[in-house]
Every structure is written in C-alpha cells, then in structure tokens.
Design goal:
Layout: H1 8-25, H2 29-46, H3 53-69
Length: 70
C-alpha cells in the first residue's frame, strides 16, 4: 500500500506505528515502513473486518524484527 492509498486517519496511525516501532527497535524508520506496508497489505487481502489490522500489523512487524535480531 502506498502513501497515496491512505486516508488521513490511516496515514496518522501508520506514521505513529512506524515511528514507535523504529524507535523501540533502534532501526531506520524506512526499513520498518517497508515491512509494515508489506504485512498490512497481506493482512488486508485476507481480512473481513479492517478495524484492528494496524494493531496486528504492528505486532507482526515487531515479531519479525525480533526474529531478525536473533
């Protein structure tokens, strides 16, 4: 999903999630953004209810980043 595909509330939520994850993991926000976009797109393809997708995407990004460090 590109930046252009997001409405204002989604964009704000996305930016907050990416910056928070980048800070907490000590990595570049662009790397987190790319991973978050990919995971969110995958989740959206399979989801019926979209309300909690940003939370699930953030959780999956954090899990992947932690796995990558190991």
């Amino acid at each position: 999903m590109s930046e252009l595909d997001r409405n204002e509330p989604e964009r704000t939520e996305f930016e907050t999630a990416v910056m928070s994850l980048a800070r907490s993991q000590g990595i570049d926000a662009r790397e987190v953004q790319s991973l978050y976009d990919s995971i969110l797109a995958d989740l959206k393809r399979e989801a019926i209810i979209m309300d909690f997708l940003p939370i699930f995407a953030a959780r999956k990004v954090k899990e992947r980043l932690l796995q990558k460090r190991r």
